[in-house]
Write a structure and sequence with these properties.
356 residues, 6-stranded mixed sheet, 11 strands, alpha+beta, 9 helices, Beta-Lactamase, 5-stranded antiparallel sheet
Length: 356
């Protein structure tokens, strides 16, 4: 196997032009270590964890109809790792957490970085030291345990679906108590009107953070809908980024602005004359911002606040059904695109602070 840091190696050349790399572990899909570059304390354990993690994500991605796993990343305030799987090889790359990960993820996803020869045929372990960062990164960099996989139930005949509405305004009233779930449609859940495939499942088996990580890694566009006894929550994505979210207890933009002490009374009176649908994502720019009733930056801040409030509510949903439809038309302001990882990390930090 070619040396990782030689110019003849695609992976080596990729890492040479990537700033902030702390260490690299290359292994096989069977968990055997093949090469260590940099400051990994236990390369064997990292190679084994990378193989297990990527194998589980490949299985789950296949069950959800997302195809074969390619690249994933984990990031905290003290460490960041990008994992890749290609042919018979897996790679774990640790970076300075202050560095963005998107460029490296794109390159790993688009380039043929795995060694030309089968890594399983070369038992030699290559350990190459690298120059450490000036500021040493502290804290644990071990990846979290792999996600357990459970096979969804067998398909059942779906009920006759109601007409689908693509408007991202306030969700309909909560559905009746949950019945035996099928793998296609659920009572109270709208049927796909898109042209692409739809995957569904149980929230008991695939929690919201896992679903969002799959959708982000595969850069999916469409509507993720969660149906529970508490109501319906929706998350709209554009190429894996969050552009809108709503839930029964999410921030109501109309009520938010009508009760804002920062708006002049006459401005609030004008807003009060507008119907609620004017504050939906598909109309608020044309009906409110374009008429100079509200500044664009205030509207964008309120939309971001609604996304966070919807995530906080939906994170507590551990029972129910989810459905992702990549064919649902997405109406969005291109300037608003949030990372699910950033949203979840902030919510986790809030929960940690509240628990102290």
């Amino acid at each position: 196997m070619l040396d990782l840091v030689t110019e003849a190696s695609t992976l080596g050349a990729l890492l040479e032009e990537t700033r902030g790399v702390v260490g690299v572990v290359l292994g096989t899909t069977g968990g055997e270590l093949r090469s260590v570059v940099g400051s990994f304390v236990d390369g064997d354990a990292t190679a084994d964890a990378a193989a297990a993690l990527t194998a589980q994500l490949t299985t789950i991605g296949s069950l959800l109809g997302l195809g074969e796993f390619g690249v994933a990343s984990l990031k905290s305030a003290t460490a960041a790792r990008v994992f890749g799987r290609q042919r018979g090889a897996v790679v774990a790359i640790e970076l300075d957490p202050k560095r963005p990960l998107g460029d490296l993820e794109t390159k790993l996803r688009s380039l043929a970085w795995a060694p030309e020869e089968d890594v399983a045929e070369n038992p030699a372990v290559n350990r190459v030291p690298t120059v450490p960062l000036k500021e040493r990164i502290t804290g644990s960099t071990k990846p979290p345990p792999s996600v357990p996989v459970s096979t969804p139930p067998a398909p059942a005949a779906p009920p006759a679906p109601p007409a689908h509405s693509t408007s991202p305004t306030r969700p309909p009233p909560p559905p009746p108590p949950r019945r035996a779930a099928s793998t296609t449609n659920v009572p109270g859940q709208v049927k796909s009107v898109g042209s692409g495939p739809v995957f569904t499942g149980d929230l008991e088996e695939f929690c919201l953070p896992d679903l969002l990580e799959f959708l982000r890694n595969s850069q999916r566009t469409g509507l993720l809908m969660c149906t529970t006894d508490y109501g319906i929550g929706t998350i709209q994505l554009s190429r894996g980024m969050i552009i809108s979210a709503d839930s029964p207890k999410a921030l109501d933009l109309r009520e938010h602005f009508l009760t804002s002490p920062d708006l002049a009374p006459e401005r609030r009176r004008v807003l009060a004359t507008l119907p609620p649908e004017c504050f939906g994502d598909d109309m608020i720019d044309g009906m409110v911002v374009a008429r100079d009733l509200l500044p664009r930056d205030e509207v964008e801040r309120a939309r971001v606040a609604r996304i966070y409030s919807a995530f906080r509510e939906m994170m507590a949903w551990t029972a129910g059904r989810f459905s992702f439809d990549p064919g649902v038309p997405v109406v969005t302001n291109p300037a608003l695109a949030l990372s699910a990882q950033s949203i979840l990390m902030q919510i986790y930090q809030e929960q940690d602070e509240q628990g102290r």
